Amino acid sequence: MTITVENTPLVVYSANDAGFRAWAKAWHDTFIALDLTEVHNAIDFDTVTMPTTASTAAGYRVYELNDSKSADRPVYLKVSWGRGSTSNTSYGFRVDITVGQTHNAGAVGGYTATQYFQMECAPTGDGEIIGVRGPTGIVLYSNIPMGSKYQAIVLVERFAINDVPTTDGVFFIVGAGNVNTTGTTGGDPNGCLINFVTGTTTANTAFATPAPALLSYSLDRSYMSKAPLYFIQTYGGYDR
Question: Model's pTM, two decimal places?
Answer without folding.
Answer: 0.86
